[in-house]
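Posting this for the archive.
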Amino acid sequence: MRQFNSATAFMIVLLLLIGGLFLSSLTFLNRMDASYILIQRGNEPVKHVLNHYTLLQNKRGFIFSVTFLIAASSIMIMIALPSVESKAKMVHKEAPQPVQPEREESSISAVIEPEPAKPVAPPEPAVPPPIAAKEEPPAETVEIIETVEEMSADFEDVTEGEDDVVYGTGPISDAAIMHFVHKFPDSAIKFLYRKQLDGKALTSVEESIYSSWENRNLTRGKVKGYILSLMDWKEFPKKPLYEVWKEIRDHIYENID
């Protein structure tokens, strides 16, 4: 016997609602027809309304019933039609499953003999690992360190003159590069990566400014070398530029005498 559940009850109620709306639509339509009488005027009969108020109420009831009848019928059709997932499940169930051949067991059983025990070799004495030779820094790192040491020699005497990165107009000195990194770490990062701190592209004005700095002997290698030496890094961390700038800024502020 089929189990009576909530889905079945909903379908029954929906069918009763559709039937009631259909009957009410016919009733209002018949009452609308009863509101007219035919009067002979000339050669053609003319409809004459007996009660305009009754006719208006029946017309409203007819429109109301037809509207809800269409809505209920649409819901019924949506529920009755199977969905794409149910169709796929039905096709999957109806598809013949491949029959796997039964594994035939051999009637001859082999006798498994135990393997002879292997002699255990005595443990070898532990040999201490060889001491790794101290790795020498690559040539590029040595060159950067030497460049930073040369730059540090004149940093204490730096002043904002013609060699200043931001305010000067002459060739940029090594000491001015160090002063530029300490005073404007955000601009140094943007010049080095050619990006904004949020990762967006530079504006045309910033591009022209950085090009003028390069024409005045400001190079990315010197800026990168000094920042690596200042932060004691081997390479720049794989972080957003905003995080890298914050680390450099905090380090500079913490080491201000």
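Residues 104-113, 131-145, 151-157 have pLDDT under 50 and may be disordered. The first strand starts at residue 36 and ends at 41.
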